[in-house]
Structure formats: C-alpha cells, structure tokens
Amino acid sequence: MKLKTLLCICLCVWVIGCSGPTTKNIDMVNDQGKAVMGLDYRDFDQAAAAMIDSLIRSGSLHKPGGGRYVMVTGGIVNDTMQRIDTDQLMAKVEQEMMNSGQVAMTSAMGDKAGASMVYETRDMRDSDRGDEFNEDTLPAKKQLIAPELSISGKIFQRNIKYDKKTQQVEYYFQLRITDLTTGLRFWQEEKVIGKRGSDKMVSW
Amino acid sequence: MSRYLFLLIIMGMLLAGCGSQVEDDRVNVDHRVGSDSLGDNIITRPFKYAISALLGQGIEITEVNDTLTPEGFLDVQMKGVNKAYGVKQFEYRTEWLDANGMVIPTKTSVWVPVSAMGKSEVTFRFIAPRKEAVDFRLNMRKKKN
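Output (structure tokens, whole complex):
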C-alpha cells in the first residue's frame, strides 16, 4: 500500500516537473525580472526616456515665434545582430515629442509615408473612382506641409570578449535632429546600454 | 589585558576616523585612491563597513530643487547622499501630475537606474515631458541586475 502511495506521489511530481514553467503576464510597470543579453522592452523604455529627457531639456524644439515644428522621421538604422523594429524606440520618442506640444510629425514623407494613405487618397482623387466621392471632402492640391526638421539615427551593437567565460555586449542608441532648411544639426544624443554575461548566451 | 588594549586602539581609530573631514566636501576620494589615515586604513575599514551594514545605512535624499525651463517644462533635481561604504545601485520612477493632481501618462515614466559611490553625494535630474505637469511623485527601489 505504501509503495503504491509512494509511486503515485512520484508520478505526480514527475508530471508537474515535466510541465515546465507556467506562463505569467509581465508586470510592465514594476518588472524586476532578470536582465537578458539581447535588447528587451526595458532597454527601449530606458533609451527612449533618456532621449526624450535630453531633447526637452535642450530646448531645441522650441520654435521662435511660437507654434510647432513639422518633423519627418528619416532613416533609423538597425545595425545590431537582432531583428529589431526601430519603432520600438521611435514610436515612444515621436509620441512624446508630439505630446510636448512642440512638434507635429508628418506622415507625408519618410518612413511612415507608405502606410499613411496620404498618396493613395490623392491617387484616388485623380482617378475615375474619385468621381464617387463628394468633391469637398477630397484633399485639394498643394495642401501638404513640408517638414522643417528631420529625426534620424542608428542602433548598433558591439560584442567584446570580457574573459574566458564572459562576454560584454554594448548597445548604442543614437538620434539626431537636423534643420532641413539649413542642414544644421539641432540636437543629438547617445545612450549606451551595456550587458555582461555568459559567453554561451547569444545576443541575437 | 592585551585584548582590551587592542579593542581600545581599534575604538580610538574608529573615533578618529569619524572625526576626520575631507577639506572640500564637493570632492569624494575613494579609499583605494586616497591615502590611509589613522581612522581609515586597512585595519579599521572592515569594522566601519560592518558597522555601516549593521546600521543599515543607504541613500538619503537631502534636497529637492525644481524650476521651470524657459519653455515651461518642470525640471527637477534631487540631491542625496549615500551613507553606506559600498556602491548603492537603485532605480527611480517619476509620475507627473497636472494642476488637478491627475497623473499624466507618459513614456518617460520608467525605472531609471542610478549608481552612487560609497560615502558620496549623488545627484539625478529629470524633466517633465509636458507643460501641464506641475508636480511629481517619485518611487525608488533597489536595482536588480
């Protein structure tokens, strides 16, 4: 009898053990999970917050005479070994720039132009299908506002052998704002996030 | 008798250490760089570390300054002191409040890491991302690596 009970307990333990770690939702506000060698959402949050802090403190977005600057997102190069959507950084930065009341982003140019439907609407206006729409609701010509500033940047990675068993991975986040009229650079910032861990861990 | 004498010497060294002052409090010299003194040397240091750990010494915020930037954003600087002998790593997270005391949701409300040298002053600064922010709330926690 005792043997049967013991076997039953062993079976239960084995079944539970084989089920692996349970899935849990991450506490996105107070996450105290371990660091990872790759880039996770906390790294992007930290980099974006540092960029926004620097940008607002610099006063570069203050338009003399009032009003908002019109800004376009230029190329944000991912030069890391990871498949990163650079919007993980830029969506946050753009959102806060717009919410600061100093910038209006344009979807008529740059990275966001493709999916913005700005040109599809105009193509449709100029096609036969345009006749199906109320003319007053279609955009007239020469209504688009050209950008005054552009934001561009780069995320790159350096892997360094720290010692026999440890590697060091450095991630560089760089952003810069350029005045499109004069070509002068208004602002630029770099945030470095460094990680040190086992050589067996893969950072891509 | 010799044991009492040894303890007396140690206590004397500790007391002398407590009394020693850096000439300019803006300058903090790590013990591995600065010269040893009667109160701070290879013999007394472990005792000082142990006492500091026993007392639970850590970060104390001593000064909060806030000002408006010319563009109208609330700029805050916090000054504190790390009373412990070792490096203290911590994180802070700011929540911005509008004139009605309502929280302004922003992407800058994230945990930001800070590192403070032992027995040293620490300063960190943060700026409101919106002009509506007139006040803030700050949480601090130990940094987990």
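Residues 39-117+145-204 of chain A form a domain with the Rossmann fold fold (CATH 3.40.50).
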